[in-house]
Design goal:
This protein is mostly beta strands and about 525 residues long. The chain folds into three domains: about 300 residues, Alpha-Beta Horseshoe (Leucine-rich repeat, LRR (right-handed beta-alpha superhelix)), CATH 3.80.10; about 80 residues, Immunoglobulins (Immunoglobulin-like, Sandwich), CATH 2.60.40.10; about 80 residues, Sandwich (Immunoglobulin-like), CATH 2.60.40. The protein contains three helices and 32 strands. The strands form seven sheets. It has a twelve-stranded mixed β-sheet, covered by helices on one side. The chain has a five-stranded mixed β-sheet with strand order 18-24-23-20-21, with no helix packed on it. Strand 28 and strand 29 form a beta hairpin. It is elongated and about 100 Å long. The N terminus is likely disordered.
């Protein structure tokens, strides 16, 4: 049988062959499918903006499929992860990164040449779950629209040069577990809105320039395990409600660090009656003066009270609690010097007492005059000078050692005593003195007028406690002396001018509100 191939049949065969070829080509393309163009273009912009040709590893970039590019993870036709570590990125982050609208993880770290600001386009990506740029050199502020990324579980922007305030919009992030902004230059107060991040585990805001105090809302985060606020400018008393964090149920055990701030005064006395078990409490390098009473009801793995103004009387019972096993680690040495510097002038025959300020049951005191030991006793917490003579003039100091706290020595700040052996002190207000001080009351400066020529030695101003608050060398011009009192607070003082053989004194009133009010 002879088969005749017509033109129509030839056309049909050719059509079928083309269809088969197209199917084979489509299958081949599908086998090596690329991501959406917007994703690839965003990555190309990232490559060009951060010095891609000079990266330590740029394997696959701009050559093979996007799924083979170093640091990139692709699922389907979308980029899901972009992670780089110490890859020598140089330059800035491009706005085009906001086109990666399906990305879940964005992480760059140890890229010291990466600078510029964080593109706010990144926080238009609502799929972000983990965002971190650490140990780079970013500048500018944290974009407020970060609060749009409600799936974020972790924000890590540590060790950059970020400035401005912490966006309160972060409080919108219900899923957030980790917020790490440490070692930047952030200012302002801690936003109370952070207390709305109910699932937060770690809050690291240390090594910034934050001010104010700790918001009560933050202390009500019942899953918080780490609160690091150290090395900021937080001030005032440590709030009593910080103890809200002490009572997490296992397995949570909170670690709190507020060291290196400007907190002062007493720790809340009510804490002494609380029973709690926490991992770490670091209050070192502040200006605290007293600790709660010990009732052996605290369990703290590490308790650090170093570099404050605590005396032996407050440290001793807590050291005994450490010996009893309440604290696994207890750090108390060193502490600040005790008392204040005193410059005072006394008259012969008078009496004067200097308190060491150290206290403690196991303390031994050593008193020195001009560097030479004059008294050593366990009972000499106060040095008494009776029937003072010219020989008592000098500088007095005290060191206190403690047989229980053998690692710590406390020092009393110096007391400088001058004995007035002149013929007497002349009251400037005496009409016979011929001297006048004006204005009095004063606010910024005073002028002292003398009707005679004399050689001055110095001017001193004392507060009502006998502490010298101002010392000036005098310059006389046309029988007058001008002195600035700008640094002194409003109050009553005693002004004393010493010449070669006489002392002139008067009461001085300082009124910063103005002398005519």
């Amino acid at each position: 049988m002879k088969i005749t191939v017509t033109n129509q049949n030839k056309f049909r065969v050719r059509t079928i062959a083309i269809i088969i070829s197209l199917i084979i080509m489509a299958c081949s393309i599908a086998a090596t499918a690329q991501v959406l163009p917007q994703d690839s273009l965003a990555l190309v912009a990232f490559y060009n903006s951060t010095g891609g040709p000079g990266w330590n590893n740029n394997s696959g970039w701009l050559t093979g499929p996007v799924s083979t590019w170093y640091g990139v993870t692709v699922e389907g036709d979308r980029v899901k992860k972009l992670i780089f570590y110490s890859n020598n990125l140089v330059g800035t982050l491009p706005n085009e990164l906001g086109q990666l609208t399906a990305i879940q993880t964005f992480g760059l770290s140890n890229e010291s040449e990466l600078t510029g600001e964080i593109p706010d386009t990144l926080f238009q990506i609502t799929t972000l779950e983990w965002f971190g740029i650490g140990n780079c050199n970013l500048i500018g502020t944290i974009p407020n629209n970060i609060g749009n990324c409600t799936l974020l579980k972790s924000i890590e922007l540590w060790e950059n040069n970020l400035t401005g305030t912490i966006p309160s919009e972060i409080g919108n992030l219900d899923s957030l577990k980790f917020l790490d902004l440490h070692n930047n230059q952030l200012t302002g107060q801690i936003p109370p809105e952070l207390g709305d991040c109910a699932n937060l585990w770690e809050l690291r805001l240390n090594d910034n320039q934050l001010t104010g105090t700790i918001p009560v809302e933050v202390t009500q985060l019942n899953q918080l395990m780490i609160l690091y606020l150290n090395n900021n400018n937080l001030s005032g008393n440590l709030p009593e409600y910080l103890s809200n964090l002490f009572f997490h149920n296992p397995p949570y055990s909170v670690s709190i660090d507020v060291s290196g701030n400007l907190f002062e005064g007493a720790l809340p006395e009510s804490w002494g009656n609380m029973t709690f078990n926490i991992d770490r409490l670091n209050i070192s390098n502040n200006f605290f003066t007293s600790l709660p009473a010990v009732n052996y009801n605290w369990l703290i793995t590490s308790f650090n009270i170093r570099e404050n103004k605590f005396t032996f009387e407050y440290i001793e019972p807590h050291y005994q609690a450490y010996q009893a096993g309440c604290y696994y680690f207890f750090y108390y040495n060193p502490q600040d010097s005790m008392g204040v510097n005193i410059d005072t002038t006394l008259t012969p025959g008078s009496s004067y007492a200097v308190y060491s300020g150290t206290g403690g049951e196991y303390t031994n005191y050593k008193w020195y005059k001009n560097g030479e030991l004059i008294l050593e006793s366990a009972d000499a917490d106060t040095l008494h000078l009776e029937n003072i003579t010219a020989a008592d003039s000098g500088t007095y100091t005290c060191t206190a050692e403690n047989s229980l706290l053998y690692e710590l020595t406390l020092y009393r700040r110096p007391v400088h005593i001058i004995i007035d052996t002149s013929s007497g002190t002349i009251n400037i207000n005496d009409p016979d003195s011929g001297i006048s001080v004006y204005p009095n009351p004063a606010s910024e400066k005073i002028t002292i007028s003398f009707p005679f020529v004399f050689k001055p030695i110095g001017l001193r101003i004392f507060d009502l406690e006998g502490k010298c608050v101002l010392i000036q060398q005098l310059t006389v011009s046309n029988h007058k002396i001008a002195a600035s009192i700008k640094g002194l607070k409003s109050g009553i003082y005693f002004l004393r001018i010493q010449t070669e053989n006489k002392i002139y004194s008067t009461k001085l009133i300082i009124n910063k509100r103005g002398t005519h009010r």
